[in-house]
Amino acid sequence: MPEQVDAPIVPGSKIMRVRDVLNPETGELQRSLMTLKVEGQAKLVSDEYEFAVDDGNAARQMLTALGWQEVVTVDKVRLESKTEDYTICIDEVAGLGLFIELEVLTEDSADVKNIQQQMCNFLKNLDIDGKLCHIFSDASLRNLLSSRLFGVYLTLL
Q1: Rounded distance between C-alpha atoms, residue 51 and residue 46, angstroms
Q2: Higher pLDDT, 47 or 28
Q3: How many CB atoms are located within 10 Å of the residue 27 CB?
Q4: Which of 14, 28, 50, 108 could cysteine-pair with 35, CB 3.0–4.6 Å?
Q5: Which residues form the CYTH domain (predicted)?
Q6: Concatenated DSSP letters of 17-62
Q7: CA atoms within 13 A on the CB side of 90
Q8: Rounded to an integer, what distance in angstroms lies between the CA atom of residue 63 and that of residue 1?
Q9: b/e string for 88-97 if b means 16 or more Cβ within 10 A?
């Protein structure tokens, strides 16, 4: 049973997502979150705005009424932890397999390539070897659903 069900809605370089967070034991809805991700100047760099909504279904209906379209639903179980530098998410994505996502908050002027290299080195030091998936848009994620791979999804916020 998925712990999180994401239904991102994508027009261009902005992603609007409504996430339902479920109790992993009972499957009952715990909360719904609405998120807007705006793609930055470099791959895997985005500004993110997130807030709780009382009714995830009503939020999805509102977005549809505004002309947004749901393009993919992602069912996943997520384990999350933090280090001094990163938020680490290990996701088991239905139909895709295991992914590791690292997130870090940075200033707009940060050296993105250097930070991404530091993230890769961090994972290598943990003996984690995988393929870097340059996925920002959920349309790209939808294309991956036809193949299984172990990936490392590095994001900068």
Answers
A1: 16
A2: 28
A3: 10
A4: 50
A5: 1-147
A6: EEEEEE-TTT--EEEEEEEEEEE-SSTTBEEEEEEEES-HHHHHHH
A7: 6
A8: 26
A9: bbebebeebe
Q: How far apart are CA 117 and CA 100, in angstroms?
A: 15
46-105 pLDDT per residue, tens: 778 899 999 999 999 999 899 888 877 888 888 999 999 888 988 888 888 888 888 888
> Residue 32 corresponds to which tokens in the numbers above?
């719904």
Q: How far is CA 141 from CA 44, 58, 96, 130, in A?
A: 13, 25, 9, 17
CA–CA separation, 157 and 148 (whole Å): 26
CA–CA distance, 157 with 15 (Å, rounded to integer): 14
Q: Please give the share of the chain, as a percent, with pLDDT higher than 90.
A: 17
Question: What is the CATH T-level fold of the domain 4-65, as seen in this structure?
Answer: Nuclear Transport Factor 2; Chain: A, (3.10.450)
Residue type, 66: L
**3-class secondary structure, 121:** helix
Task: Tell me the pTM.
Answer: 0.67
Q: Where in the chain do CATH 3.10.450 domains reside? A: 4-65
